[in-house]
Amino acid sequence: MPDPYFVLVSTAELADLASALDVVDDQAELNHRYRKLIADSRQVLAAEEIRLTQARGLAKRLMVLVKAAGPDFRDGLPETARAALDAGLAQADALVFHPEPD
Q1: Distance CA 99, CA 96 (A)
Q2: How many other CB atoms sit within 10 Å of the CB of residue 63?
Q3: DSSP secondary-structure letter at 75?
Q4: Domain boundaries, position 55
Q5: DSSP code of 51?
Q6: Is residue 37 part of a domain?
Q7: Residue 2 lies in a domain
Q8: Total structural domains within the chain
Q9: Bridge partners, 81 (sequence order)
Q10: 16 assigned to some structural domain
Q11: How far is it, in rounded angstroms, from Cα 7 to Cα 99?
Q12: Which residues have C-beta within 8 Å of that of residue 15, sequence separation ≥ 6?
C-alpha cells in the first residue's frame, strides 16, 4: 500500500462525510471548541483534493463530534438527517478502520 500521506482523495468523494458534519452542526448542541472542529473541517473540505491522512482525520473528527452530541443525538434526528448522519459515519468508519487494500 502506498504511503497514505502522499495519496490524494477528491473532496467530492467525501460528500457523505461533509453532509454528516452539516447535520451535526445544524442539530447538535455543542460548545465553541466543537464548533471550531466543524469550521476547521469545512475549511479542509473546501479544497478539491486532500491527503488521505487528512480525510482520515476528518472522519475521526466526525466520530468525536457525534459522541460529543450525546448518546441520544441520532435518535432525535428527523429521518433524512439520520440517514445523512449514518451515511457519513459509514464513510468515516471505512476511512478509519477499513482502508482499501492496494
Answers
A1: 7
A2: 16
A3: G
A4: 8-97
A5: E
A6: yes
A7: no
A8: 1
A9: none
A10: yes
A11: 12
A12: none
Amino acid at 12: A
Contacts (Cβ under 8 Å, ≥6 apart) of 12: 48
Which pLDDT does position 98 carry in this prediction?
85
Alpha-carbon separation of residue 90 from 5, 17, 60, 94 (angstroms): 22, 9, 12, 6
pLDDT for the residue 1: 65
Residue 76 cell numbers, joined: 432525535
CA contacts within 13 A on the Cβ side of 62: 31
**Residue 1 included in any domain:** no
Contact by Cβ (8 Å): 27, 60: no
Kindly give the confidence (pLDDT) of every residue in the chain, 102 residues in length, as a single tens digit, with 9 standing for 90 and above. 677 778 999 999 999 999 999 999 999 999 999 999 999 999 999 999 999 999 999 999 999 999 999 999 999 999 999 999 999 999 999 999 986 654
Q: How far apart are CA 17 and CA 62, in angstroms?
A: 8
Contact 5, 53 (CB under 8 A): yes
